[in-house]
Amino acid sequence: MSGSGIGHDQWKTRFGFMLAAMGSAVGLGNIWRFSYVAGESGGATFLLIYLFFVLIIGIPLLLTEFSIGKAGQMDAVGSFKRLAPNTKWHLTGLMGVIGGILILSFYSVVSGWTLFYLYQYVTGAYWTEPDGGFGAAFEAWTSNPVAPLFWQALFLGLTILIVMRGIKKGIEKANNVLMPALAILLIFMAAYGLTLDGASEGLVFLFTPDWSMLAEPSVYFMALGQAFFSLSIGICGMLTYSSYLKAKDRLPAATVGIGLMDTVFALIAGVMIFTAVFSYGVEPDSGPPLVFIILPSIFEGMPAGHIVGIVFFVLLTMAAFSSALSLLELPVAYVHRTLGLTRKAATLTMGSIIFVLGITASLGFGVWSHIQINGNNILDMMDNITANVILPLGGLLMAIFVGWYLNREQAVKNSEIESPILQKVWYNIVRFLVPVVMVVILFISLFDI
């Protein structure tokens, strides 16, 4: 393994890897995106279809990405070069690196907002509704050309400090604290939501299927997309994380555990959000403004709402950090190997580039708000490029790589599945079903149907 460049740095335990991988998946999107997508798509009906797709598409594709990283024992680009020398397959990894940079550049902007809201709740500024309401306050603050950049820089700076320390001492150690704390806070918030008047309506919406929604094609598309995106597949972040595994660390059990726990997190987040939303008469399909405008309004009317607000934004901040660590590690691992930089230098370099790119996304809400394509500002454009093109294309290429480029014996060996029946099922899913599904996701995303 000495020639792997970054292979000397490994997870201390397989459980540490699982927590970090869960942290990568359980980000801001899995807490609020799952809720509003479920709200738009029929609640319980969406949930059933989503669970089905997680099992037959999400987990097999996650194992596919893990198998490439563990077998390659290098960064996203290096792993493909090692497994497919003298080919162009490494461009899949390079696309993932570029995607990770783009995602973290706008993700750090939104995460900076989360940090700011946490500060506002801790200091008491948002215990009562600001003049003009939470909506006007949010719009005024995000359009400020300077203030959001401070919080974006603070968020990225803390992320850089953790990644700089490496896998064992930095990312693993941080996730060993972040993920259990996140789980406790999420359960607390969901339990509190269950005590609210009208909470039962939220539970009915989330867990009682409307079978007529099964006739809506959009529900299947939304559930399929959420199952894919919620597991953080296709960007090569999971590939990079799995490259730090020891030979004795088995992939199948870890993959299933990560997939199931990620889904449990999303369900508990749904309980937390929908009990509050229905208790205060808010539409369940309120969309992205839910977190920064609608929920603060709800918190204001709650008993001890200021405490609930603090806990909620602590929870969101932890989720943001856990995902940001994997997004930054992705390009850092690549630059660390290819340019021969120290981990510290590689982390500072990539963090700085990501911050500069993020400035453009932040200014897109203010002085550069006139820069739009089809009504999308700069942040939305970055989001669309990564979510609608890079992620599904990455998933498609990984499935083709494992299902068609590698021979069956090598692919199955890398998956570490022991049961002959499960080997056959997994391989056929990756070889035939996943590529079709990825093409469908790409087609729907690109043509917005």
Automatic annotation (TrEMBL):
CDD domains: SLC6sbd_Tyt1-Like
Subcellular location: Membrane
InterPro entries attached to this UniProt entry: Na/ntran_symport, SNS_sf, YocR/YhdH-like
Keyword Transmembrane helix: yes
Top-level taxon in the UniProt lineage: Bacteria
UniProt topology in membrane: Multi-pass membrane protein
Keyword field: Membrane, Transmembrane, Transmembrane helix, Transport
Entry GO CC: membrane
Transmembrane segments: 15-35, 47-68, 89-110, 149-167, 179-199, 219-241, 253-282, 302-328, 348-373, 385-406, 426-447
Location, primary (coarse class): membrane
Name this polypeptide is given: Transporter
Source organism (scientific name): Alkalibacillus haloalkaliphilus
Lineage: Bacteria, Bacillati, Bacillota, Bacilli, Bacillales
